[in-house]
Write a structure and sequence with these properties.
It is a single chain. By secondary structure, the chain is of the alpha+beta class. It has helices spanning about 15-20, 30, 115-120, 120-145, and strands at about 5-10, 35-40, 50-60, 60-75, 75-80, 90-95, 105-110. Strands 1-7-6-5-4-3-2 form a seven-stranded antiparallel beta sheet.
């Protein structure tokens, strides 16, 4: 069973500011509660082909994985993929202007769990949905209080 979770938030800040902050992998630990660290494998700046090593804790487990940027339109869209590990995943961020001058940010995680993850996919999907909602709320609070 595949997992496909789409979460969105409206942030009362410009698209340029939100995309610049959220789209910089170095900032991920500031707004993702479960990400502990990010190390660049390739030199910045971010571009298609960039690779970063992430360390996270999720559902009581330490996860280490490498994301590769597969699509990037600055200020509009960022797509990263990790093809290896127990849960190969693709993460997509999009940013769009709202009529009020803010930003609608979407975060989409999708992938095909393997092994035990296949059996637990519905539970995994619910956990990802809760975590993404909390992380986008954290990002919103962080950017709107600056």
């Amino acid at each position: 069973m595949s997992v496909d979770v789409l979460t969105e938030v409206v942030i009362d800040r410009s698209r340029e500011l939100v995309a610049a902050f959220a789209g910089d992998p170095t900032n991920a630990p500031a707004w993702y509660a479960r990400i502990r660290g990010v190390d660049w494998r390739t030199a910045p700046p971010l571009r298609v082909g960039s690779q970063m090593d992430f360390v996270a804790h999720f559902l009581g487990r330490r996860l280490a994985y490498t994301y590769e940027v597969i699509d990037y339109a600055p200020g509009e869209r960022l797509v990263m993929r990790t093809p290896a590990g127990p849960f190969p995943m693709e993460t997509t961020y999009t940013w769009a202007d709202t009529p009020e001058g803010g930003t609608r940010m979407t975060l989409r995680n999708r992938g095909e769990p393997s092994g035990f993850g296949k059996i637990a996919a519905p539970i995994l999907e619910a956990a990802i949905r809760r975590a993404n909602h909390a992380d986008l709320t954290r990002l919103k609070t962080l950017l709107e209080t600056r």
